[in-house]
Amino acid sequence: MIDWVRGRPWLGDLALVAVVLAAELPGVASVKSLLITLACAGLVALGRRHPVPVVALVGVLYLLGTMPPGYDTPGSAMIIALYLAGRHAPALAAATVALGAAAVSATLTTDALVTHPLTGVTMTLFPTLPVTAGYTVGLRAELARRGREQAAERAVREERRRIARELHDVIAHHVSVVSLYMGAARRLIPTDGERARQALLTGEDTARQAMTEMRHLLEVLRTDGEKADGLAGVGAAGLPALVEESGNAALEITGEVVTLPAPVDHAVYRIVQEALTNTRKHAAGAASRVRLAYLPGEIEVEVSDNGRGASGGPGLGLGLAGMAERVSLVGGELKAGSAPAGGFRVHARIPLPEPT
């Protein structure tokens, strides 16, 4: 209902017209007063779109109401017009309206300023109050609008980062595996045709998996309102296949295996996947060891290799940054660097919720 009303601002314009008529018509005592009231009511309806001209014209009609015959000023229309000027006019124009209204009020209350200074000052400054109120309401609305826009922009940036992480993990892992098996096949063709054939088949299967995951990613992107969480189709249960696919790697699982929350489950898989990918890219031929430890209240993930340690090669920083961000998003911490005994080590600790 509120959204329906917000989408029809003319309803607010009509409401202001009704307020002016309800406030002024009961006190109408002459044709002049009636005409001024009707004119002011019509002008108020235009105040949202043309605040400064409207407040000027209503001010003129207000002054006409102070002239004989009779004394009947459209006070409610004047207050509303001043409010609309503060609410919808640019800041400089609103300030000019406030100063102008105060100057006119001071002219009309000259005697009071002399005989009763406090009353005179109050009457002089009174017209600035509706302008200030309108400006304050407008400022709050503008800040709220900017806040919504910034929140939407942050959501878009976060979604892009999440998609970028998925693209990096899917493409980097599968391409590195395909490259590994293609290289093995090339070396085996002259000496062992059957093993070369198996390596080619494995590379083909890996490429097919990459295409499947890419199609799934594109489907998620084409689906309105679906988050990148829809990509989280892999988890700790897929680690044995991942490690086996990676070749020279071993998996060790300790502790009582429990069902992990979906974000943690997905993060664990992607951390191991990225760490193994980095080993193949930056320490080709090194043996990797994956350790998954289910501990009370947390899970530990460790991937180490016996390569040459941190080399700072291109692409390593992006992978580590992605892993660190993943771990941070699920409330954990990640450490990565050269291991004391040689090689490279990635270690992540992720808290788990208390069982219910």
TrEMBL record:
CDD domains: HATPase_UhpB-NarQ-NarX-like (cd16917). The keyword Magnesium does not apply. SMART domains: HATPase_c. Its EC number is 2.7.13.3. It catalyses: ATP + protein L-histidine = ADP + protein N-phospho-L-histidine. Its main location: cytoplasm. Residues 263-354 form the Histidine kinase/HSP90-like ATPase domain. It is found in: Cytoplasm. Its cofactor is [4Fe-4S] cluster. Keywords: 4Fe-4S, ATP-binding, Cytoplasm, Iron, Iron-sulfur, Kinase, Metal-binding, Nucleotide-binding, Phosphoprotein, Transferase, Two-component regulatory system. One of its GO terms (cellular component) is cytoplasm. InterPro entries: HATPase_C_sf, HATPase_dom, Sensor_HK_TwoCompSys, Sig_transdc_His_kin-like_C, Sig_transdc_His_kin_sub3_dim/P. One of its GO terms (molecular function) is protein dimerization activity. Member of the two-component regulatory system NreB/NreC involved in the control of dissimilatory nitrate/nitrite reduction in response to oxygen. NreB functions as a direct oxygen sensor histidine kinase which is autophosphorylated, in the absence of oxygen, probably at the conserved histidine residue, and transfers its phosphate group probably to a conserved aspartate residue of NreC. NreB/NreC activates the expression of the nitrate (narGHJI) and nitrite (nir) reductase operons, as well as the putative nitrate transporter gene narT. This is Oxygen sensor histidine kinase NreB. It comes from Nonomuraea endophytica.
